[in-house]
Amino acid sequence: MIKHGASKLFSRSAFSSVQLARNGLFVQRLFTTANCFARSEHTTSPTSDQDASKYIKMFSIQSISKEGSLIESSANTCPTAKIIMDEPVALGGKGSGPTPLELSLASLSGCELITARYVARSMKMEIKTIECTKMQGKIDVRGMRGVNGIPAHFTHVDMVYEVDTEAEDDRIQELRARVEKACPVYQLFKAAGVVMNCEWKKKQ
């Protein structure tokens, strides 16, 4: 459960903020400008450390552990929007909100969907909707118990995206490839060695 609140924006030249209320979930979205998702063959690299410094952005949140397993977090971009996390009753929580692991999957799908909109714009690809119809993570809980040799993070993530567009499948697959390259959260999972099983297809 995430409570609603007012937005606080970064500099408009760097970011724009969109809030989405869907199925009771409030999401504070941060977007880089569409120029960040220009075609890869046209991108350039900073030529010095001094040049690179202006591209570095910091994101931060605050979290507090309340009774039991209840956690309340807020982001500096929208401090009045409280993100509530909890464990299910079966694990000793009260089920007051999604678990941190579930939110990590929500972050993955949300980041890919946001990135896809900007990439599609740079591709001049008309899209009505993009929907993540499956996002499922597999984890061996022995890793969370400290068993040697078993990672404590997800080992596999299966996801399906359905794109409502008139574009052909080759364009959808190009969109997917660019999104996976540019999406920060996708790259974070990938860098951790998570097996990412992704399917992007046209919505029927």
From TrEMBL:
Coiled-coil regions, chain positions: none
Superkingdom to which the source organism belongs: Eukaryota
InterPro entries named in the record: KH_dom-like_a/b, OsmC/Ohr_fam, OsmC/Ohr_hydroprdx_reductase, OsmC/Ohrsf
SUPFAM superfamilies (UniProt xref): OsmC-like (SSF82784)
Protein name: OsmC-like protein
